[in-house]
Every structure is written in structure tokens, then in C-alpha cells.
Design goal:
Oligomer: single chain
Order of helices and strands: HEEHH
Number of helices: 3
Shape: globular
Strand content: under 5%
Structural class: mainly alpha
Strand order of the largest sheet: 1-2
Distance between the termini: 34 Å
Length: 148
């Protein structure tokens, strides 16, 4: 259903709503990745080897959570920002394009018995699930930040 407790969509502007939904999907995807990135080292352990061989920083030397921010070298942050920029500009996201609807061409679920991109009902259900999971992940990562 449609829920707008803050009244952002009172004016009925469909273009603004579409932009807000696109942004919500994007933030949800980032939050899902962040939540998994926050938990995964705690659950599975850290990679062997070096994060930065030239600086002698091993993956196991990097603490979990927000404390890791100060341990990652500047070149590492540069790589992260470059990847984010690539993801942002590599797909046309102007209104009316598939990218504006969040369809960026990188499907985590390959077509098969569990997902058929041509089945509109299945696709709609999965997009609604992604939206709900993204909302939950946004709350989860904020909770993890506060816990830290």
C-alpha cells in the first residue's frame, strides 16, 4: 500500500514521487549491503592476507563496525568512492528509463525457475519484497551504528 505519514506526496506530483521511490530503492540496496558487511566478518571471520601490503595492514587488523573507518587507507576509500561513482553513472537513470525504476541491469537472481523477468506478477512481488527489505535494512544499519 501507499504510506506517506510525512505528507511528502500531498501535491500529487508523479515525477517527484518516482524520484523519491528511486532514491528509496537505492538507499535500501546500499543499506542491505552495509548491514551484511557489518555482520559478515563477525559471523564468518575475516579474509586471510593483507588489506594493504605496502602499509602492512592485514584484514584481521581491521576492527568490525565503525572503528574500521579510521583503519582503511585513503587508497581503499578512493576505490570505494570510485566504485560508487561508477555504479551511479554507468546506467541512465533519467525519468522514464528502466534505471529510474531501479532496474540497473545487475540482477542478483539469474533467470530460472525462481525468477522470470518477463513474468510481471513475479517481478512485481520481488520488487515489493526488495523495497520492504531495504526499509528494514535502513533501520537495521542505523541500529548497528548506535549499538557500536
Amino acid at each position: 500500500g501507499f504510506w506517506d505519514p510525512a505528507g511528502f506526496c500531498k501535491d500529487g506530483d508523479a515525477v517527484k514521487f518516482a524520484r523519491r521511490r528511486q532514491t528509496e530503492i537505492k538507499h535500501g540496496r546500499v543499506a542491505m549491503l552495509a548491514a551484511m558487511g557489518y555482520m559478515t566478518p563477525e559471523i564468518t571471520g575475516k579474509w586471510p592476507g593483507y588489506l594493504s601490503p605496502s602499509m602492512g595492514i592485514k584484514f584481521e587488523d581491521v576492527p568490525n563496525g565503525l572503528a574500521a573507518i579510521s583503519k582503511v587507507p585513503a587508497a581503499g576509500w578512493g576505490q570505494i568512492i570510485a566504485w560508487m561513482a561508477y555504479c551511479e553513472i554507468s546506467v541512465n537513470q533519467k525519468p522514464g528509463t528502466p534505471g529510474a525504476k531501479g532496474e540497473l541491469g545487475w540482477q542478483g537472481i539469474p533467470p530460472g525457475p525462481s525468477y522470470n523477468p518477463n513474468d510481471k506478477e513475479s517481478k512485481s512481488k520481488k520488487l515489493k519484497s526488495e523495497l520492504a527489505n531495504g526499509r528494514l535494512a535502513m533501520m537495521a544499519i542505523i541500529g548497528m551504528f548506535f549499538q557500536d
